[in-house]
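debug: dumping io for the single-chain case to check the tokenizer round-trip. Nothing else runs in this session.
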Amino acid sequence: MRPAANAPRSQRRSAAPGRASAPDELITVALPKGRLLEEASALFERALGVSPRELLHGTRRLAAQAPEVGLRFISIRAADVASYVEHGAAEVGVAGLDVLREEQRDLYEPLDLGIGRCAVVVAWPKGAPPLPKGVAPRVATKYVAIAARYFAERSLPAEIIELHGSIEVAPSLGLADAIVDITETGETLRANGLTVAEKVLDVSARLIVNRVALKLHAERLRRLIAALRSAADGRMGGTS
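debug: decoded output
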């Protein structure tokens, strides 16, 4: 039966003929490129005995199959993972909490994987004098929504300037008074004369699942989530 014309886009995609409907079809897992791919691969290898990074290594294709565990892995830009999962191109994905809270996607988040740990912070030039009373700071960031919520929740006016790269140099070039950015060690901030004023959000990678796929593949996804939870707990020294 064809999905209704006015059904949500993700539902139309997932329910389409040949798409996420056969119980024996491979489940597609979207993984971000870079360091997080390595950390996620270690978890999948511990949980299921397959390493997405090794399967994808040495090929220009961005997809690799692991039929022995019923999965297909795709490697894409970190910023695109949530879109692939929300719209049904992948049933499962791994995405940082910073991306998820910035974009407010309609996704199921069953598991904190405990990898890719870092933080979104507010940073100011070291030793900078306070702004005159009543002057709203100019804040450079790629996290426009997160930054806006942070300042609004504190009833602090701020002018948010959206940037997508080299955010740390914005204060030294006079573009901004402060920045909201992600950091792991703070080394880049310190190298650019910045100091962390406050933490906005603790970040780690989450397992995300398409809501329609969760109904169509409930038992298979339940087993996958349980296996990854056990692997994540083991990685962090947990016992549950």
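debug: round-trip ok. The first helix runs from residue 9 to 15.
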